[in-house]
């Protein structure tokens, strides 16, 4: 029994060691396991593309819905949703990131693009633009993105602070007044990160220990930093070829336009009132649908006014 257990532990350590060695080699062209496993999945699909009617839809960063089933719908706190929640609850105040248009696509646009791409593939409609006489090779790929129409972190900062979105939505349980600072200077970020996050976390954890509660703030901040480091490869400008997605909008039957057309979103990107409405619905969606909290500013306002500045 003891010998078998020892052999099992040895094999496990050996297997883990081989995996780590393999990962070191893969890191030269994949920043993390997330992109690596996606590449593996796409390779498997490409291998059967000649035998099965398959198509690959690649979404960019998915955010709450634009219109369907209702504006702002989301059921998780992945990605930007987690950052918005941490900011609205006063946990996170500063973030070090360059200013660029983030390709963040609403979830319903991803769904509609997927349906249209599946429809086109089922009817053997080739949407990939190719020169005359050139036969398509491999699986067809459609990017579900919005490109340069995505909002920048400067846009978010404007909506949250200058436009007063932070004062229109109160997240229950906020530990202090929500504020948002975007910095592109790493040194300035480290200083403010220490002041707004680390020092504040020490104060919160000390107070928790003195009152017999479990200290959690510093651990949350460590997770935040780790998360930022893990997602750093994605938080930069990307250029996605979006012509296939646009062609799908043109190819659809007129009777399907009401359900599957989303070109109106592109038209309203530079309209201040439209962007203001989209910002409100997005943050409200995180509050109501992901956190399942009540959207009642007047009810939560007394607590909102008592928060630490």
Automatic annotation (TrEMBL):
Record-linked Gene3D superfamilies: NAD(P)-binding Rossmann-like Domain
Family the entry assigns: Belongs to the fatty acyl-CoA reductase family.
Thioester reductase (TE) domain segment(s): 16-113
Gene Ontology molecular functions: alcohol-forming long-chain fatty acyl-CoA reductase activity; alcohol-forming very long-chain fatty acyl-CoA reductase activity
Function in brief: Catalyzes the reduction of fatty acyl-CoA to fatty alcohols.
Swiss-Prot/TrEMBL GO biological process terms: long-chain fatty-acyl-CoA metabolic process
UniProt cross-references to InterPro entries, sorted A to Z: FAR, FAR_NAD-bd, NAD(P)-bd_dom_sf
Catalysed transformations (reactions): a long-chain fatty acyl-CoA + 2 NADPH + 2 H(+) = a long-chain primary fatty alcohol + 2 NADP(+) + CoA
Name the UniProt record assigns to this protein: Fatty acyl-CoA reductase
Enzyme class: oxidoreductase
Entry's Gene Ontology cellular component terms: peroxisome
